[in-house]
Amino acid sequence: MFDIGWSELLLIGIVALVVIGPKDLPKVLRGLGAMMSKVRAMASEFQGQFQDAMREAELADLKKEAEKLASSATDAIQNPMQSIRTRSNSPHNRSPLHLPRPTRK
Asked: How far apart are CA 21 and CA 14, in angstroms?
């Protein structure tokens, strides 16, 4: 993460020991550890919320795509039906009615 080697970590430890002192160093390290734990928890929570938002966005896209597919399927069914209705109602396609011939008695 910070790309710190063992030699740099040892140098930071020695400086902290000199500046803070051996008596208060455990308290400071404990506080630093707690703070790092909180930062990691916050980062994990943020990452989880971000992933949830991405999933919701993907679901919204999938929903739109499914609605588009359903609409195109409905159109594919309705367009030929409308064409058939139009042709059957056209005056050119109507056959004349044949009335039965009267029978003689």
From this structure: 10
